[in-house]
Inverse folding.
């Protein structure tokens, strides 16, 4: 799987909360969207710091574009995490681990890097 394929799968399966996503599909999707997020963030910071006026039309446009992208990416990201949890034999509810300060993020990284578990229960696939 390549970067473009990961990006396409990320958006094509945006509302699929019941399947599985392999480690490769998960990380390519995360990587592709991270690139876009970083580029938008760079443009936003440049527009706010390098131009004469702080709030010029380009800065306002970049703020709006950045916010829209973040909102649009939210549901597909959640569904990707759900599918990744299903792939390791866990319930999608493990997404709540992310809300535990510090330890939760470390636990989440451990979970998403685990290999596929074919022997665990297939959640939501009946």
């Amino acid at each position: 799987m390549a970067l473009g394929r990961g990006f396409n799968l990320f958006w094509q399966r945006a509302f699929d909360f019941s399947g599985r996503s392999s480690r490769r599909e998960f990380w390519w999707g995360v990587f592709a969207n991270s690139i876009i997020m970083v580029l938008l963030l760079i443009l936003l910071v440049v527009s706010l710091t390098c131009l004469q006026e702080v709030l010029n039309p380009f800065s306002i446009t970049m703020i709006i574009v950045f916010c829209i992208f973040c909102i649009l990416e939210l549901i597909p990201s959640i569904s990707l995490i759900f599918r990744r949890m299903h792939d390791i034999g866990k319930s999608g509810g493990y997404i709540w681990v992310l809300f535990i300060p510090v330890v939760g993020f470390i636990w989440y990284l451990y979970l998403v890097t685990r290999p596929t578990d074919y022997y665990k229960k297939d959640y939501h696939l009946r």
The chain has a mean pLDDT of 87. The chain has one domain: 3-112. The helical segments are 3-12, 23-49, 57-87, 103-112. The first helix runs from residue 3 to 12.
